[in-house]
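Would you be willing to look carefully at the protein I have copied below?

:::
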Amino acid sequence: MLQGCGAAIGLPFLECMAQDASATERPKRFCGVYFPYGVVIRKEDEAAAEWNWFPKGSGAEYELTPAHQSLESLRGDLTILGGLSHPNGRKMDGHDTADTWLTAYELKGGRLVNSVSMDQLIAMKHGDKTRFSSLVMSTDGGVGEPTRSSTLSFSRTGQPIPAMNKPRMIFDRLFGKDTQSLQKQTQQLRNSASMLDLTLEHSKSLQRRLGKLDQQKLEEYLESMRQIEKRVAQSERWLHVPKPQINATDLHLDADDTTPGELIRTMYDLIYLAFQTDSTRTVTYQLGNMNGATSIAGKFPQLLGFADKIHALAHGARKGEQGAENLGKWDQFLTEQLAYFLTRLKNTQEGDGNLLDHTMVLYGSSNSHTHVNTNYPLILSGGDRLGLKHGQFLQLEEDIPLSNLFVTMLNRLDTPVDRFVDSTSEIAQVVSS
């Protein structure tokens, strides 16, 4: 009876709905969170080395630096990774690699075509199980431009997927009430489907008459049409299921780039609610793009009392003791927001564990030092009931592709792959026996 009610009134995922299900049948979720420009990396005998992003020591006996003290209570739920990077990224300019953090592709040539991001592989495999196949978010919104993208997510053909950056817009999409009648919404969706069918049908004869380059451009356009077609079909399937009822009293939905602390935390709140209500199982969140001159997120430190924008903080970290401390405190601020999010997931019971146990969160950057595309700073958390093990600082060889981690994660998120771009194997050290 309750399971039927869940479909009728849009309840979140409840234990009674899966009391006979095994843990492997529970929702399995992925969240990728990116920050730009790198971190503090100093030798232990250098001034301000206490602000290093990477911990002291190794294995389970590592010691967190001030930048990560907020993660102390979560040690058993995360692994800090050093050494990994994308081999293709090592060939690229230091500003270009945010675009490829989840794709592992090499952007080169005049058209700078990307490939599919790992979150969208998960969405293509499991997106039909939820109202939204994925949730794409960033501080800047939209898609940006090639090599300065404002989104982490790319479609099957490598096209950027626009990111949302306004909390109220995201909340309304996930939980807002529809003002139009059910009949009118149904008719609009069917009209959209008919127009898409007509466009796709007419394109077939046109495609045969085009040159190779124009055919490629048309195929990219048609792929966008197919994605819209899928979203229309998915919307119609969920039209008769009311959205979950959420109390927004404690959410700062009007937070914007003038209140960066509230904005980042509210975005994490929305990801939490999207997972808790099983509205989606795949989320990406980009905390600033690599276009430091115009990026909204580039101004965040100044609004929080820092003297410089993120780009200048990153460059300053290599010049002196004060510069390292300044960037270290910015890293500390970002980690505190991450700890808040992970703690919310951990404190929400789900089955024989909690939301974090059934969610993999990958947090990090594609720079180590400013614009250096090796030794990415990465934190992998959650997924205890999905086959991951934690409680360690894992320093890996710098020739190991980050894609090896993607394969490890995808195979435990029921999105099996033999290979992802340049991967060579799984990373056994993060897998529970």
Notes: Residues 1-11, 15-24 have pLDDT under 50 and may be disordered. The two ends are 38 Å apart (CA to CA). The longest strand covers residues 29-34.
